[in-house]
Amino acid sequence: MNLYAFKRNIFDSIMFAFLASVAAVVIFQPDEYAMLELGRNFQFFVAALIIGVILTTLLNRAGFKTLGEQIFEPPYKKAQAKDESWWRTLHGWQLVIFLVVTLIVGFNVTGFSIYKLVDKDSFGPAMKLFAGIFDPNWDLLPRAVLKMIETIFLAFLATFLAIPIAFVLCFFAAKNIMRHPLAFIVYLCLRTVLNLARSIEAFVWAIIFSVWVGIGPFAGMLALFIHSIVSLAKQYSEIVETVNDGPIEGIESTGAGKVQTIWFAIVPQVLLPFISFTVYRWDINIRMATIVGFVGGGGIGSLLQTYQGQAMWPEVGTIIFVIAFVVWFMDTTSAYLREALK
Amino acid sequence: MSQPILQLKNLIKTYPNGTQALKGVSFDVKKGEFLVIIGLSGSGKSTLLRCINRLHDPTSGQILFNGEDIAQAHGKEVLSIRTRIAMIFQHFNLIPRHTVISNVLMGRLGNMGTLGSIFGFFSKTDKDNALKYLNLVGIGEKAKMRADNLSGGQQQRVAIARALTQNPEILLADEPVASLDPATCHTVMDYLQKVNRELGITIIANLHFLSLVRQYATRVIALKGGEIVYEGDPKNIDDAWFEKIYGAGAKEVHIN
To answer: Is residue B150 part of a domain?
Structure first.
């Protein structure tokens, strides 16, 4: 079986298994205990997947184009395709049914309700919160500013310390540099590690480090530091992969070694985008520092958590004001900086 | 009769995807020649040049450089070979954001330590030589300009100067004038001829235009489908040969 048909079958069968699962829930109306039986439900899903693969193969053989086929089919097949209105095709209806079902499930799962939004019983307490937030307690301003400064430096240090490590790592994670078979293995390993580490959010790192080094800005800094290394290394390496090959060949032809080639042919090409991405990362880190602070990472996030937990809305209002101002300011400044660096 | 500076013996290059770019190419190059290789795009000209300075690894066969086989050299040997066989390219391959003089100095990288070069410790002699070669190709006054502010022809001259700072024995030129306008074309070719005649550097160039070949080459080799189909004096390429090299129905384009 060729690769495209494999992708098509997986795609269509996941769609089919999803629809079959929804249908099963609607028909059998299982209670919570039945829903929690992961093993049995998983078996059902796998069975549906297998049926889905068979169904997809049969359908496509019979000349009905499935959505998977439409997406993954190779260009030569696309060129032969007949031009038909979407409502006359299987894949058109497949997409519509999938979207409608997903929307309905989404409304159900999230308990979507316009009524709750405007109901007096829930709107009342919310009004109190708004009243508090829009009437900030300015006595807290000095402390909020102090904690915000802590946050800015926390984010700055995390970014700054991550730069050299990410800079070195990015070349090992760039496909166009790691061409040699042995180097390619290193590339694959590093890419995997980076992708795994990146799937762990900064606030999870903050939870880990707040236990490790204790609650406070140091834990928050370490969390953002780890997150910045992986994010920057990934972004840097993607820039390295887009460099122009000409200068590399030019420098290699002079008899320059690997490190010299990177330094003279690649670094000049990537320096400006690197700086631009780094400024942006600092900007992101300041925003993330708030969330990281919420789970023990110090800074303004910790302060927000304290007052939010006690429903002291005027104090929360002050903190939100300070955060919003700094985030807006950083956003604007970094946008100007990045524009100028282009 | 002195020993040839370069001897290719049954050179074969097969790419990983199975394409046979060179199917057993053999020829000699004498010191001081201006050898031109012609042929259609895809005939293996670029691959051939890149095998000689080992930017590409030949699959089999021998490349004797001053009598020593370099076809299977590896590691540091390859770098040392590249310093002695310089190359210029169709798209010049300069570093756009660096100055002209710094681009020319990069010709010294192969003879320097990694750390020293990264911190920019180029010797006085290197700097003097770089400027000397820039003057030789007539753009000494542009030394402090950024390379990407120069015209195509000027950039190619910078590339020639960079190649010269390597003190090469051979200069490979891969389509050196293919992205230049006809007038600039001749300027660059004239400087290559000057390098060949005044400095005695052997030149192997890929060219497209037969009129240029007749004017500058001392000998010509024609490649077709990875094999040599003609070798000899450029003046002897008549219409019959032309059709054989470029296929029936092809017409020669003249540039002045």
So the answer is: no
How many structural domains compose chain B?
A: 1
Complex prediction ipTM? 0.91
CA-closest candidate to residue B82, choices B172, B192, B198, B13: B172
pLDDT (tens digit, 9 = 90+) per residue, B71-83?
A: 998 888 999 999 9
CA distance A166 to chain B (A): 19
Q: What is the domain range of residue B34?
A: 6-93+169-246
Backbone angles phi, psi at B86, to 5 degrees: -80, 170
* CATH code at A133-340: 1.10.3720.10
Res B155: pLDDT:
95
Query: Terminus-to-terminus CA distance in chain B, angstroms?
Result: 37
The percentage of chain A sitting over the pLDDT mark of 90, rounded to a whole number, equals 58
> Which residue, among B106, B121, B169, B204, would best test binding to A if mutated, counting the most A CBs under 10 Å from its CB?
B106
Average pLDDT over residues A278-292: 90
Instruction: Give the closest-approach CA distance of A259 to chain B in angstroms.
Output: 7
Domain boundaries, given as residue ranges, for chain A: 3-112, 133-340
Residue B256: band (very low, low, confident or very high) from pLDDT cuts 50, 70, 90: low
**Inter-chain residue contact B79 with A246, CB threshold 8 Å:** no
Cβ separation A246–B162 shorter than 8 A:
no
Q: Which helix (H) or strand (E) holds A328?
A: helix A313-340
The encoded tokens of residue A279 equal 């400024």
Share of chain B above pLDDT 90, in %: 67
What is the domain-level CATH number for residue B193? 3.40.50.300
CA angle A244, A246, A249 (to 5 degrees): 125
Closest-CA residue in chain A for B51?
A: A253
Q: Do A255 and B117 touch (CB under 8 A)?
A: no
Residue at B101 is within a domain: no
The residue type found at B117 is S
Residue (of A167, A176, A168, A184) closest to A246 by Cα position: A176
